[in-house]
Amino acid sequence: MTDREINAEVDIQDHEAGPEEMVSVDPLEEGLSDPVRDLEELVESGDFEALDRFISVLHPADLAVLFSLLSKGHWPQVVSRLSIARVSDLMAELPDHLRDDLAEHLKPDQLTEAIEEMASDDAADVLADLPEPLARDLIEALPEEDRLEVETLLKYPEDSAGGLMQVELVSVPETATVDQTIDAVRANAEEVSTFHFVYVIDDEQRLVGVLNLGALLLAPPDRPISELVKRNVHVVNPEVDQENVAQMFQRYDLVALPVVDDRGRLLGRILHDDAADVLEEEAEEDIMRMAGATTHEPELVYTDQVLKIAGVRLPWLLATLAGLTIPALLVWAFQISFPEMIALVPFIPVIGAMGGNVGSQSSTIVVRGFATGRVDFHNLGGFLFKELIISTLMGIACGVLSGVVAIVWHGDPMLSLTVAVSMVVAIIASALMGVLVPYFFRLVKIDPAIAAGPLVTTIDDIIAIGIYYVVALALIS
Amino acid sequence: MTDREINAEVDIQDHEAGPEEMVSVDPLEEGLSDPVRDLEELVESGDFEALDRFISVLHPADLAVLFSLLSKGHWPQVVSRLSIARVSDLMAELPDHLRDDLAEHLKPDQLTEAIEEMASDDAADVLADLPEPLARDLIEALPEEDRLEVETLLKYPEDSAGGLMQVELVSVPETATVDQTIDAVRANAEEVSTFHFVYVIDDEQRLVGVLNLGALLLAPPDRPISELVKRNVHVVNPEVDQENVAQMFQRYDLVALPVVDDRGRLLGRILHDDAADVLEEEAEEDIMRMAGATTHEPELVYTDQVLKIAGVRLPWLLATLAGLTIPALLVWAFQISFPEMIALVPFIPVIGAMGGNVGSQSSTIVVRGFATGRVDFHNLGGFLFKELIISTLMGIACGVLSGVVAIVWHGDPMLSLTVAVSMVVAIIASALMGVLVPYFFRLVKIDPAIAAGPLVTTIDDIIAIGIYYVVALALIS
């Protein structure tokens, strides 16, 4: 099993580009020609030589982008022009929901070969996404060693450190010398084509430390590596959540992170680009959840599966619709309680929306603070107090302004006072809710990102209108 | 100028930790003891030996987190215990708004030395953040070579490829052999302590390609590097926006990216961890903008500067408050136009909020699609059509439901029909607006993330209520 994906990191010669490609090709950049259309025209023209030339200069990641934009009808011709190595790269780069489609265009033995070519982590990811019976058959067809690797990796949850790691790495015993280590690197060069470190292990497979290639390059051949090894390195257990892994890469600027079991034995390594993907995926999930758009598959909303997309978005809408019966009832209560004060009613949506807006600001700040480690239970008290001051300042500004509008509009001081006081109280209450609700969700182990979504905005909306009703009852009736 | 920050990537021995630190210390992880309190107690106890021990095992990134949580009163004692190298690391890791505070605790020559220790990109970043006269003095005090480097880097906008790059790198002429290259690496080992590649240049300083260290390690000493060099590498111009740079790292799984001028001459290199920071920063900015919380300094909302924070959040609130006068007027219009149909009024906030919710879903999907390259002008038509189908499905579901509630509540078929039809039309209109507004903002070069914020939600709110009013006029009067 060669290591094509991480190969891409340092070696883009494997896509046979000419020197004219020294400047990055971005097929999606505006202003350039439209590469999707170009590709479609080439397929339709049947000029396979030109098609091959066009495909051969593309980085696998660019090829994957083109495939995701290419109409499905053109897929078979393009797929038929790809080498197994290119199919393997393409499959590793494609978004999850398109891997299935690509697999359908391949014969079983092509598919097996493509998976064999992948790094172990990509192979496991692809197999986890394919339909169960097909995946089973493919695993059975893999050579013994690859099969064991993939089966080991598939045991870990996809969103854990174990699910991110790959087993390909170079390790040497701590008793080795520099030239023995270089021999080990040479012996594994085919298998592990990119390595930032050589891992040093003791006689029980426990990680002792890492050797960086620069140190190896500069050291005399007979030097014992025990004098070069860096012993204090970050490690991670395979059970750790992928979000924590990504945060470690981010905080400590890591390139690669060894994965060890409870007894310190080296199991594999995680590479920086996979950690960066997690970071993006998690930010994406949070954002989508905040918009009430989806939960676990941010990719989905960019596909053509309209029914599935509606299925993911509609529950949020129905939930807020249900919640909105309360504001509707409150408006009705206003109309019944203050039949001669119809001027009170137009301010209801204003106060409700402002509560929602402030609550959404506060909860977003807290939710993102959790995600990036800047907010914690440690500083809840301080955070609440700060939010109290900020929301009081903002509440007074908005309250005074709406009070002025109310008195100019209707000339009724009592109405104006009701509106102003309600606005101030509603904004403060919504801001504090915006802090407390995500904390509460985190405490009970629900993803706090939900707290920045439309559900909580609706709650803030209701609270704000409720406050308005209570203030109106107190001041006017 | 040594290269401490990127050093952290492979070498955490420079913070003198003992082997007990093999497992990552996360000072903010719940369940562990409270390291901020521990540090404060150590400072108050005056036990400097224990304080030194405590500090010495921390990674610079962890030390920076502790500093950002530590009360300012305790800073001087802790700063006084740090070596210049540690101060340098800490300053590079601290969030922008705290660098100033740290600088105040240092003597000018300490500050100069700390900046000298930094990688050129960090030095330029720190100097750009310090007050102008202080920064000028510090630059003047730097050794000639460092001064020129920093001045060169400061010419590039902070958010460009030039602003991200560092000038430290190892380059060799294309005529060199492997052992000459290793000598060049050795000569630069102090200056450039981490390198993933050696850059190969021609006699006019133009980049020819890269050598990876693994290839150097395995090749015989007398081999010409022209046989090993990888000639097709991604490069970037210094003027390119940092967001595009980060997307290149993400798409092509890069570790380092050479920066070249228009004539292909090598200027510097960008490292993956700085690109990852950009990715996080940009996602953060988008999220905050979507919540109407801030624009360019996502960090700010986590500081104690309540006045500044209120200043950043209030404009959004005031803008939506101004926008909300329109729904208020529309409610008033309902009350005037349909004096005997007060049952129409409670549905106003419901329809308005649903419009806002759907619009927020759509615009978030489009805005994030822009940011990650999955949506483009190329597929506007398809995207709009898809959104039309999805929103029609969701609109019918919500419309039928609210129509049923209306007829159960008031038994009036005309009211029920008005509510149902308005809901369907409002949801479709808001969804399409949610797609078109970000496209429009992008077309006129305004950050489309604003389109997913409260301003556009308010517009959707208004449109939805307007539709309700028009439908009511058509069906009822």
Helix and strand layout, with pairings?
2 copies of one chain form a homodimer.
Chain A: H1 4-10, H2 35-45, H3 48-56, H4 60-69, H5 75-80, H6 84-93, H7 96-104, H8 108-117, H9 120-129, H10 132-141, H11 144-154, H12 161-164, E1 171-173, H13 178-188, E2 197-201, E3 207-212, H14 213-218, H15 242-252, E4 256-260, E5 266-271, H16 272-290, H17 306-323, H18 325-337, H19 347-372, H20 380-410, H21 413-443, H22 454-475
Helix pairs in contact in A: 2-3, 4-6, 6-8, 9-11, 15-16, 17-22, 18-22, 19-21, 19-22, 20-21, 21-22
Task: Pick out its properties.
477 residues, Tetracycline Repressor, domain 2, Magnesium transporter MgtE (chains A, B), 3-stranded mixed sheet, 5 strands, 3 domains, 5% strand, mainly alpha, MgtE N-terminal fold, two-stranded antiparallel ribbon, metal-binding (chains A, B), Mg_transptr_MgtE_intracell_dom (chains A, B), disordered N terminus, CBS-domain, elongated, 22 helices, homodimer
Q: Can you say what the CATH homologous superfamily of the largest domain in chain A is?
A: MgtE N-terminal domain-like
* Total helical elements of chain A: 22
- Tell me the major beta sheet of chain A: 3 strands, mixed
Main interface: chain pair and counts: A-B, 139 and 140 residues
Overall geometry of chain A:
elongated
Strand content of chain A: 5-15%
Major β-sheet strand ordering of chain A: 1-2-3
Second rung of CATH, namely the architecture of the largest domain in chain A:
Alpha Horseshoe
Average of pLDDT of chain A: 86
Helix content of chain A: 55-70%
Poorly predicted runs of chain A: 1-32
Domain module tally of chain A: 3
Rg on CA atoms of chain A, Å: 29 Å
Distance between the termini of chain A: 79 Å
> What structural class results from the helix and strand content of chain A?
mainly alpha
